[in-house]
Amino acid sequence: MTSDRIMTLAATALGSAALILGFQFSFAQGAVPHEGDQPPMAHQDIGTVDFQVSCDPEVVEDFDYALGMMHHMMYEQARSEFEKIARADESCAMAYWGIATTMFQPLWDTRPSAVDLERGWRMIQTAERLGPPTEREQSLVDATGAFFWEPGEAEYRQRLERWANGMAAAYRAHPDDLDIAALYSLSRLALGQIAEDRDPLHDEAEKILRNVWEQEPEHPGALHYSLHATDVDGRADNALDMVEAYGELAPEVPHALHMPSHIYVRKGDWPEVIEWNRRSANVALGHHVNQRLSHHYIHALDYIVYAHLQQGNDEQAHEVYQESTAGDRHQDTFVGSFHSAAMPARLAVESRNWEAARQLEPRSPDYFSWDDHPWSEGIGWFALGLGAVKSLDLPTARKSVEQLAALQALALERGDEHIATFIDVDRHILAGWVAYAESDGDEAIRLMRAAAELEESVEKHPVTPGALMPPYEALGELLMELGAPEDALEAFQRADDIWPNRYHTLLGAARAAREAEDEEVAGEFYQKLLDMVENSQREGVQEASEFLND
Questions:
Q1: Which of 66, 202, 291, 485 to pair with 194, CA 20 to 30 A apart?
Q2: What CATH number did the domain enclosing 443 receive?
Q3: pTM assigned to the model
Q4: Which long-range contacts does 190-199 make (Cβ < 8 Å, 24+ apart)?
Q5: Of the given ranges (55-69, 287-301, 429-443), which has the lowest mean pLDDT?
């Protein structure tokens, strides 16, 4: 018996009668609330899950469907399905496990509220009281229970680590169970976001998930989590055979249609990013959560905006952004707030429209819970600050640096060390441009190089297709301003290694090579730029054509 199991059982046994009554779940009254507002839908194609749950035979197929949706990270929809199972079979302990497990999203930094934590703990207590009839099912209840234990006390990171330890125990006991193996691999990837050495965790996850896929080629967890495992610098080619397979597995599941683009972003293949995310966005329009558009919709749109901007298609990117603001309100989550802040910031920064950037309003639209999402708010301040410093409005730029520092501190206070690092990367870049504007070139270079080092200490967060201004790209532009084209070319080449086929990286590298009188390399980068753009009206495209035709 694991220590987590002992803690869970001890907490349950020692809880006061008032606590138990307060958390009591009334089976007889069918008191499973339906939190979303999804209309009843027929089961969609989601792949193959065969969990063989120990519940009423009438709900076995429904349970497999709910678990499959959870593997697709369609958490709200999966929760709704688990709730329906709990109402149909009040003795199904695993239905309550499912409800609880959908209430935290390990790769998304979605923090369960105090109410969510109490509800999750209540669901686990219900599952415990019902008593899962198999040790396999009990091991999963134990793992999720470890996350929700002490609902009012433990920090999120501690909860995540406890869940990951519980999944490790479940996997050790049941290494041949495909769903346990998939969830265990997901827990390795979650730990990878906060570990100093991510490679062993990703190595293990990749190996286990490929084994699951080879046994069941349509397992949604194996395919989905494999793409997250390889959405890492240097790993994008490791699961190319799974990319198209996953996208075709579940044609009506928004996140399944979106996920191939994570790998195509890594490869700088913008037409594929646009195609998959357009399909995802179109499907996501049919998904609402609590009368708001599912965040899968705006998640897909931001990726489309990013891809259009890398092709120099500013008009198309703006049209997609307008699409995001034309409909219902977006789901109030970290994902929703991040993309709402990122899209207008990208449009201004990528088009180098510094006055538009200076006019951005952080914490907009106001219906998001911005205090809960410091990085989302930071995106707005970073873009505003860039617009200010490029417009020589140094007081506003300095204020933006201060706001980023405060948001970084808030993230650290919340235990979000990797989120704090993302904010700090942007803070260093902006502070570097401020130093340059104040004629301190040495300090500007130091700050930009520090930003680049910080970026290399973390992996790209799955929420974002890419940075507003990657640090090596910013360093290259700074070095060009300082009259050091050879060093600038080296910075741009490093930027292209990390994030291939970014418009400003390719153009910057071409210009740096040209200034360094290396016309061969300049021609290579100008040609890459022309091969990538589609009908762009940016002046850099005309510049590339003239150079190559000269």
A1: 66
A2: 1.25.40
A3: 0.89
A4: 190/106, 190/107, 190/160, 190/164, 191/160, 191/161, 191/164, 192/459, 193/107, 193/418, 193/459, 193/461, 194/157, 194/160, 194/417, 194/418, 198/232, 198/459
A5: 287-301
